[in-house]
Every structure is written in structure tokens, then in C-alpha cells.
């Protein structure tokens, strides 16, 4: 699989950097006490139902403080007025405006807020982004045919999970599809999803990919149909968890 990422780095990384660097792909919003999916959606000017689907939320009232929601298209975190707070609609709008739209008298403080909004992903001052181990879900239910063993005689940098041909493969977490194709020899139809904090999940041996590069998917969303390895072994899914370019033991992130 290291060869896979080297090839991706050579062939796709420059294009991905340009794409992700120039496109307004979105941010993660940390839910605070009293915030609702409806108010978060309205604050970021996005349909709350679409926001729920993107993050794999089926029961909106289960939103919890500290939970992170992916906001497609957003450029910076916005302040959401909590449910029950008595503020006029006019004040609500004023609180959610871009710092660029503040009066000149407050430009200095606005710039500070804008800069601090970008800091959490690049510094050690935000506990939410330090050493956080995400919780992923199983992409398919089945027996593990090959466990994680990167130093074995035949290295396995993920899990190979038994699944009959055509079984629905579900995303292990909400994220963005950064690769969907069959150009990497040995993995058949392959999907790679990017998640928060530089985590990636990899899904190989698919009979068919159901999502395209650049798509946003919610947690537990159907993204592929399982198949069999190109070498003809029994039907299965190849599943990996990576932190940056380093393979991790998927068992450490699964329930």
C-alpha cells in the first residue's frame, strides 16, 4: 500500500493540492452547548437536511456538545446563536457575518478573530486537534480474513474483511472522496476518503464505486459495492486507516 500512496503522490498530489488549495471545500465546526442542527445550517447558509446527510446524522436531536460537523463550502468558523437565547433576528445575522464585513473601526479585532479561526489546524493550542483518535465504523460486517500485519511475510497494512459480492460498503466516517478509480494495480476499484486531522480511510477490491472524486459523504453512507481481489481470491473488502501517509491498525479506531 506504500507503493499506492507513492504513486498517488506522484500522479495525483499536485492536482489535489491545487484543488484543495483553491476550492472552498469546507471546514469542521465544533458544536457548542445549545446549538442545533437547524441553527448551524442557517448560520452557514446551508440546508440543515443536506448538512445532516453530509455528516451521517439521522436523528437531529442527538447532536452533542463537542461533536464536529463538516460544513461544505464554508471558509471559516462562524458563531452560532444557541437555542433559547433571546436575540433579535437582526442581531443573529450580525453575529454570523464575515469578519471582512465589519466596520472599519473594528477591523483590527476582526483580523485577530479571522486569524485565530485558522490557527487550530496548525498549532498545538487547540486540544480538539491534538492527539485526537477518531472513531470509525466498520465499512462492512464480516469475518476478518487477513489482520493488520505490516511486517509479515506478506505485509497487510489494513484489514481484509469477508463480504459477498455486491455487499454495500459504507463510509467509516464523514469525509471527502479524494480518489475514486481503478488505476492502482492490485486493488481493483479503489476509494480513498479524507477525514478530519489528516486521517484517511481506504476501500479496495470494490466491484463498483458509487461516489466520485470530490464528493462529500456522511458517516455510514453507501459508497461502493464489494467485490473480489484481482488475483481471484474469495470476495472481500480491503480496508485501511491512515494518519497522513502512515498506515494505522484499523482495530484501534473501530468499535
Structure report:
With 255 residues, this protein is an alpha+beta fold. It folds into 2 domains: 106 residues, Membrane-bound Lytic Murein Transglycosylase D, Chain A, CATH 3.10.350.10; 109 residues, Glucose Permease (Domain IIA) (Distorted Sandwich). It is 21% helix and 24% strand. Strands 3, 4, 5, 6, 7, 8, 9, 10, 11 and 12 form a 10-stranded antiparallel β-sheet that branches. Strand 11 and strand 12 form a beta hairpin. The radius of gyration is 20 Å and the shape is elongated. It starts with a helix and ends in a 7-residue tail after the last strand.
Structural class: alpha+beta
Which regions contain 5 or more consecutive residues with pLDDT less than 50?
10-24, 86-103, 105-130
Terminus-to-terminus distance: 24 Å
Number of domains: 2
Rg, alpha carbons: 20 Å
Largest sheet: 10 strands, antiparallel
- Percent of residues in beta strands: 15-25%
Mean pLDDT: 77
Query: Could you name the CATH topology of the largest domain?
Result: Glucose Permease (Domain IIA)
CATH class of the largest domain: Mainly Beta
CATH architecture of the largest domain: Distorted Sandwich
H and E string: HHEHHEHHEEEEEEEEEE
Shape: elongated
CATH superfamily of the largest domain: Glucose Permease (Domain IIA)
Number of helices: 6
Amino acid at each position: 500500500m506504500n507503493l499506492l500512496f507513492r504513486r498517488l503522490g506522484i500522479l495525483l498530489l499536485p492536482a489535489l493540492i491545487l484543488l484543495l488549495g483553491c476550492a472552498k471545500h469546507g471546514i469542521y465546526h465544533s458544536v457548542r452547548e445549545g446549538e442545533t442542527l437547524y441553527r448551524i445550517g442557517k448560520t452557514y447558509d446551508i440546508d440543515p437536511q443536506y448538512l445532516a446527510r453530509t455528516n451521517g446524522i439521522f436523528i437531529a436531536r442527538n447532536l452533542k456538545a463537542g461533536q464536529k460537523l463538516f460544513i461544505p463550502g464554508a471558509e471559516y468558523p462562524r458563531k452560532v446563536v444557541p437555542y433559547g437565547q433571546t436575540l433579535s433576528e437582526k442581531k443573529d445575522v450580525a453575529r454570523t457575518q464575515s469578519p471582512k464585513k465589519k466596520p472599519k473601526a473594528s477591523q483590527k479585532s476582526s483580523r485577530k478573530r479571522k486569524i485565530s479561526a485558522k490557527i487550530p489546524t496548525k498549532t498545538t493550542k487547540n486540544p480538539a486537534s491534538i492527539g485526537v483518535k477518531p472513531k470509525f465504523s466498520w465499512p462492512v460486517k464480516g469475518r476478518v480474513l487477513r489482520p493488520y500485519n505490516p511486517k509479515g511475510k506478506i505485509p497487510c497494512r489494513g484489514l481484509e474483511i469477508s463480504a459477498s459480492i455486491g455487499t454495500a460498503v459504507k463510509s467509516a466516517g464523514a469525509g471527502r472522496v479524494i480518489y475514486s478509480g481503478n488505476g492502482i494495480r492490485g486493488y481493483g476499484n479503489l476509494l480513498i476518503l479524507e477525514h478530519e486531522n489528516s486521517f484517511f480511510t481506504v476501500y479496495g477490491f470494490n466491484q463498483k464505486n458509487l461516489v466520485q472524486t470530490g464528493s462529500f459523504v456522511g458517516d455510514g453512507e453507501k459508497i461502493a459495492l464489494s467485490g473480489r481481489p484481482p488475483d481471484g481470491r474469495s470476495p472481500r473488502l480491503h480496508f485501511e486507516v491512515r494518519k497522513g501517509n502512515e498506515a494505522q491498525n484499523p482495530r484501534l479506531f473501530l468499535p
